[in-house]
Write a structure and sequence with these properties.
The structure holds 2 protein chains of 2 kinds. By secondary structure, chain A is mainly β. In chain A, strands 2, 4, 5, 6, 9, 10 and 11 form a 7-stranded mixed sheet that branches. In chain A, strands 1-3-8-7 form a 4-stranded antiparallel sheet, with no helix packed on it. Chain A has one domain: Immunoglobulin-like (Sandwich), CATH 2.60.40.10. Chain A is globular, with a radius of gyration of 13 Å. Chain B is mainly beta. In chain B, 0% of the residues lie in helices and 53% in strands. Chain B contains no helices and 12 strands. In chain B, strands 2, 5, 6, 10, 11 and 12 form a 6-stranded mixed sheet that branches. A 4-stranded antiparallel sheet of chain B has the order 3-9-8-7, with no helix packed on it. A two-stranded antiparallel sheet of chain B has the order 1-4. Chain B is globular, with a radius of gyration of 13 Å. The chains are: A mainly beta, B mainly beta.
Amino acid sequence: GALVYQYPRRTICKSGTSMRMECQAVGFQATSVAWYRQSPQKTFELIALSTVNSAIKYEQNFTQEKFPISHPNLSFSSMTVLNAYLEDRGLYLCGAKQGANTEVFFGKGTRLTVV
Amino acid sequence: TQTVSQSDAHVTVFEGDSVELRCNYSYGGSIYLSWYIQHHGRGLQFLLKYYSGNPVVQGVNGFKAEFSKSDSSFHLRKASVHWSDSAVYFCAVSATGGYKVVFGSGTRLLVSP
C-alpha cells in the first residue's frame, strides 16, 4: 500500500535556530508533495506545493526564505523551518500524491516545539 | 477555488448516542471529499473518502459519510459513539486533477461516559 513517513515525529529547537523535517513516500511515486502547518488549536494551512518539473509554489504568508523545500526525487521531500520562533510551533504535515487524479496520502506529522 | 465549512466547532454527546458532524463544501467541479480524525497531540488519521459512485461511504470504526451534491454536503455519522471517539474531526476537499487539499476548521467531538 501507499504510505508516507515523516521524521522526526517530534522535535524541540531553540528560538532562532533552524529545523529540518523529512517526508518519505513508500509504495507510490510522489509526483507532488504538499507541506501543511497546524498551529495550536487551528486547522491545517497549506505552506507550499511542490510538483515534479514545476516550481515550488508557496501560499500567501509563507516564503521560500523561511520554509525552503527540497523535492529531489519521486520518493522524498524535506522542508526546513529557518530561524524558528514561537509562532512557528505546531504540527507540520506532509501530503503526497501520484498524478493528478489520485488521493493524497498524509504522514503522521512532525511536531515542532520552539523554546 | 474550493472551500470547506464545518459549522460546529464543538459537539458533545454521551457514549452510545448517535452523532452527525457536518461538512459543507463549495466547488463547481469534480472533487475528492475526505474525513480525518486527530486525537489529542497526535497526527492525522484517515477515516474515509468519496470520489464517485455510492454516495454513502463506510469508513473505519463504524463511521460513515453521505455525499449530497444538491446540498453540497458530506456529513459524517456514527450510530453509537464510544468515549475513544473523542477527538477533532476534519473534513477536507481537493479538486480532482488538482494537488491542493483544503481542510475545514475542524469539529471537536467530546463523548461523555
